[in-house]
TrEMBL record:
Lineage: Bacteria, Pseudomonadati, Pseudomonadota, Gammaproteobacteria, Vibrionales
Protein name: DNA polymerase III subunit chi
MF terms in GO: DNA binding; DNA-directed DNA polymerase activity
Domain of life: Bacteria
GO biological process, one term: DNA replication
Length: 149
C-alpha cells in the first residue's frame, strides 16, 4: 500500500525559517537513506535542486552521504538523488521527499511520499490540495509534527 506522510512545520520552530527547513530536509533525507531507502528529493526547480545538493556537501564529514543530481554520476550509484519537476529520477526510487508546491502527478511512482505543511497560509493551502490528491489516489495518509531541535 502506498503511504503519504505530511510533516507539519510549527510556526515558532527552527524549521519555520528557510535555513532551518533546509537543514531538516538534509537530516530527514539522510535518515531515510541510512535505513536503506532509495530516496528521491523532488525540488521546485533546478535552482532549489542545486542549492539542496550543495547543502549535502556541507554536512560534517562523519555525517556525509553520497548523493547526486539527476543526470550526474552513475545511474545506480547513490541512495539519494536530487531533481526537480522538469526531470525524472534516473531509476526506481521507493521514497520521494516532495519540496515542490504543486506537482503530485509523479507520486504514484513511489511507495512512500513525504510532504510538508508549511506555516505560510498560501503554502499551507497548497499542501491541503496535495493531501486531497493523495487521498483520492488511495494513499494511506498520516501527519506528523516535526520534532527536531
Amino acid at each position: 500500500m502506498q503511504t503519504a506522510t505530511f510533516y507539519i512545520v510549527k510556526e515558532k520552530s527552527a524549521q519555520a525559517t528557510q535555513a532551518g527547513f533546509e537543514e531538516y530536509i538534509v537530516f530527514l533525507t539522510q535518515h531515510f537513506a541510512r535505513q536503506g531507502a532509495k530516496v528521491y528529493l523532488n525540488c521546485q526547480d533546478k535552482k532549489q535542486a542545486e542549492t539542496m545538493a550543495e547543502l549535502f556537501w556541507q554536512v560534517d564529514t562523519d555525517q556525509f552521504l553520497a548523493h547526486n543530481l539527476v543526470g550526474e554520476g552513475p545511474k545506480y550509484a547513490t541512495n539519494i538523488e536530487i531533481g526537480h519537476q522538469a526531470v525524472k529520477p534516473s531509476w526506481n526510487r521507493q521514497l520521494v521527499i516532495n519540496l515542490a508546491e504543486n506537482e503530485t502527478t509523479f507520486a504514484n511512482k513511489f511507495a512512500q511520499v513525504v510532504d510538508f505543511v508549511p506555516c505560510e497560509e498560501k503554502a499551507k493551502q497548497l499542501a491541503r490540495e496535495r493531501y486531497k490528491i493523495y487521498r483520492q489516489a488511495g494513499y494511506q495518509l498520516q501527519t506528523i509534527e516535526i520534532a527536531y531541535p
